[in-house]
Amino acid sequence: MLKEEIYATIESGDIEKALDLLNNYAKTSDHEQLFEAAELYYELGHVEQAKHIINQLLELYPDEGSLFILAAEMMIDADEEDEAIEQLLEVREDDDSFLQAQLLLADLYQLQALDEVAEQKLLAAAKKAPEEMIITYALGEFYLDQGSYNKAIPYLKRALHADLGEVNVALGLAEAYSANGQFEDALHLYHQQEVTKMPPNTLFNFGFTAYQQGDYSVAIEQLEAVKALDADFTSVYAPLARAYEAENRLKESLEVVESGLRMDEFNDLLPLLAGKLLLKMSDPTGSEQYFRQAIALNPANVEALQALAALLRDQERAEELDELISHAKEYGETDGLLTWYHAYAKAELEHYKEALILYQEAYVFLHTDSDFLKEYSSFLLEEGQRDQAIRVLKEALIHDPAKQDIAELLDQLEANA
């Protein structure tokens, strides 16, 4: 009865009394009671007393796996990982504690970035005890942590209805489904869970999965819940804004982005989103300011560079467009679209030789884009390269036969050849 009294005293919060009772409990020659005393000392944070008892028992029972397990757990708490591994490797395969030892070893090897060794330990344990669902779940969780979702899913599905105490296998499986692009399967599992018990990161996964599936009302509900629980959860703002945008609730989307910028002023994705929203809201001036803010935060943000370049092009601001892309090139940031816009700017500024070189460079990337090919052919015509222009227009029609304006232009050129 003394053991139950010690536990009751611990639960009541009277640790000093519990320790007195435990000291009396440890004065025994009963080895099983001594082991229980060691566990209680460990639970109360009196590790040295626990170690002393375990070392005594190991001298008497040098092959007892449960002793090595408790010794290893104490070493893990003391950040003595290598020593803990040594203890766990002592547990023999025929010992009742062998599976627990393999689970702990796998965790320790993962901490040391020895993932292949950790995997082998778990696979060996699963081979020895294929019906032990805690091992099956551990393998699924291991592959989930590794990002190997196809491998994780079968193990997590097997463990889904097992009684593993407080472990929620369904949430792990939902995460694996979502990361694997199986959004419908993931949502089915998320909807079965108690949302009020979900921590912010799980709610975020739920909301983001709903967004990916196109269920924007659910996405908004869950992502708003994340924001309410933890406004510093900065990853929530972009998908929440996009969900509002998908429902054409542009004002609310912009408000979310602005809230996000107040929480994370160095996130270049948020001003990019704000700029795109303001374009939809017919505010090109505000849009330009946000695009420039995104580029100032991250000069390598090609999407923001493209968006600002397109805006400057639409407004026929060739000199500023030339300056923008020239500056981007100094950072080594360019692509086919920016090269096209740069060619357009050079042509508008009457730098024809440079424009031709840039159009030729852009052609490598955009040789299937009929809009680019049409503009390129017009430039070639102005440069007197009629045959080359005709060839480019023919390519444009191959890639986009429905372009009637290109077909008519080609007929004209060939008729006058």
Please supply descriptive tags for the structure shown above.
417 residues; mainly alpha; 25 helices; CellSynth/LPSAsmb/PSIAsmb; Tetratricopeptide (TPR) repeat protein; TPR repeat
Structural class determined from secondary elements: mainly alpha
Query: What does the overall shape look like?
Result: elongated
- Regions with little confidence, pLDDT below 50 for 5+ residues: none
Helix content: over 70%
Write down the overall mean pLDDT.
90
How is the biggest beta sheet arranged?
Answer: none
Q: What is the ordering of alpha helices and beta strands?
A: HHHHHHHHHHHHHHHHHHHHHHHHH
Give the CA-CA distance, first to last residue: 108 Å
Question: How does this structure look, described?
Answer:
The chain is mostly helical and 417 residues long. The chain has a domain at 195-249. 75% of the residues lie in helices and 0% in strands. It has 25 helices and no strands. Helix 6 (81-88) packs antiparallel against helix 7 (98-111), helix 9 (133-146) packs antiparallel against helix 10 and helix 10 (149-158) runs antiparallel to helix 11 (169-179). The longest helix is centred in the C-terminal third of the chain and has 15 residues, at 352-366. The chain starts with a helix and ends with a helix. The mean pLDDT is 90.
Secondary structure topology:
Elements: H1 2-12, H2 15-25, H3 31-43, H4 47-60, H5 65-77, H6 81-88, H7 98-111, H8 115-128, H9 133-146, H10 149-158, H11 169-179, H12 183-191, H13 200-213, H14 216-229, H15 237-246, H16 250-263, H17 269-280, H18 284-297, H19 302-314, H20 318-330, H21 336-348, H22 352-366, H23 370-382, H24 386-399, H25 404-415
Helix pairs in contact: 1-2, 2-3, 3-4, 4-5, 5-6, 6-7, 7-8, 8-9, 9-10, 9-11, 10-11, 11-12, 11-13, 12-13, 13-14, 14-15, 15-16, 15-17, 16-17, 17-18, 18-19, 19-20, 19-21, 20-21, 21-22, 22-23, 23-24, 24-25
TPR repeats: 31-64, 133-166
InterPro entries: CellSynth/LPSAsmb/PSIAsmb, TPR-like_helical_dom_sf, TPR_rpt
Keywords: Repeat, TPR repeat
